[in-house]
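Help wanted!
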Amino acid sequence: MKTSVTTVTPIRVRGYHLDGYGHVNNARYLEFLEEGRWGYFDERPELFEVVKRAGVAFVAVNLNIDYRRAAVEGDDLQIETRLAELGTRSARMHQGIRRANDGKLVSSADVTFVLLDVAANKAVPVDGALREALMPLVME
Amino acid sequence: MKTSVTTVTPIRVRGYHLDGYGHVNNARYLEFLEEGRWGYFDERPELFEVVKRAGVAFVAVNLNIDYRRAAVEGDDLQIETRLAELGTRSARMHQGIRRANDGKLVSSADVTFVLLDVAANKAVPVDGALREALMPLVME
Amino acid sequence: MKTSVTTVTPIRVRGYHLDGYGHVNNARYLEFLEEGRWGYFDERPELFEVVKRAGVAFVAVNLNIDYRRAAVEGDDLQIETRLAELGTRSARMHQGIRRANDGKLVSSADVTFVLLDVAANKAVPVDGALREALMPLVME
Amino acid sequence: MKTSVTTVTPIRVRGYHLDGYGHVNNARYLEFLEEGRWGYFDERPELFEVVKRAGVAFVAVNLNIDYRRAAVEGDDLQIETRLAELGTRSARMHQGIRRANDGKLVSSADVTFVLLDVAANKAVPVDGALREALMPLVME
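Answered by r_m:
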């Protein structure tokens, strides 16, 4: 397991990721970003445990994505994921998608989450054990 | 509501349906077929009720699809859906995807389902009220 | 053809639109938004012609989406699409996704485009016949 | 590079792969299968070269898939891909999707391809250098 606050997830662009222009489709990037966030939790099983024990889920309330370069079939991409900000009632993750061969940014995104108490189905503050687990991971 | 045993669902091909060749991607056709099956139940709310009351679900166990022609952006497709066979423990739906302008077949598929008792999580025979509701819909 | 500056595109939520929580997946909303933008051009064939004649394409450079409510299977959604801003080198569309039965906003998004000269593969100003065609459609 | 005639491609099931039942959606398996076929060519760059030099493409004309078990979030799947049959005008690949932890088969599929001369846009026989390259890979 890595100790870096950033997780890097590799994805190779395939034919089914493309649209009619031969470029990765706008919607598909959101799946790449979700894959990166799952990878972030894969690398931090203890964090995943804290979240599960708290009975909460991170629910996206906003996503802001820049499309900078087109990615094409065969491109090796790296999805970079880190926790960028921790508020009292929300958290923001920053994600970048780079071409592995030249490091150029294909896309970058900020995703804002609220914490949902799954049983009560309502937003709750980010506090207690979860806050303690998340604080050391924040890097603006 | 129609009385025909075949339901026709229209779909217009869009950029996000295509792959890098500019053709509708193989996987996307399965979403078109699923859309057609939802449309089949939309046209038969009483059948949908019988299924719900029985606490069962149709679970696909086999799908056999022929790809005959490429569909491209702007094509108006018609998804035709009908019940083709009703066994004691399974059912088969036949679906065709045609271009609306010339009636040419783009794709055709057979989907075989078993009936799952959702609570018990096991396959059950197609009998009783459900069989009565389905029998008049069969057209090979 | 409508004369309104807003196009409304209906989509019914199906099983394949959902993720493991039983909610429409974040990425799928971007396909709903793209469907809405195709619908916008379907309603304005003369605008589509101007774009084609100019040899240009609208390329998304930023998308900012709020997720407000979860949509579930069977929900009838309305995708509202309009041109919200026209700069010298970019355009912004505003899109809303509402539940048809109560008008509540499920999601809203702003999508910023630049105009790409397809042959030269570079961004070009929004001017001439295209600007004339777009100006009357702007509603902030 | 492996010398086996079967390529094994790992995929971990994520939230965005699921449908409303919490199971991998039927259509998504076709993307898993396509991923497996790209992996097959990644492991055989010399075969990929022969195909490219011949100016041909493999176009799927039939897909027959059995759905045996539901896959759920977190499952580690292995996509097994091999060339199962080589006719004069078509080829068939056999693919299996297994759970890594117990080896149980989740799904299996046969995909039949014809060889398309891309420039002429017509089917051509599988012969010459391409046939020589493919023959040693066949395992029924």
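OP: Thanks! One thing I noticed: The first helix of chain D runs from residue 26 to 42.
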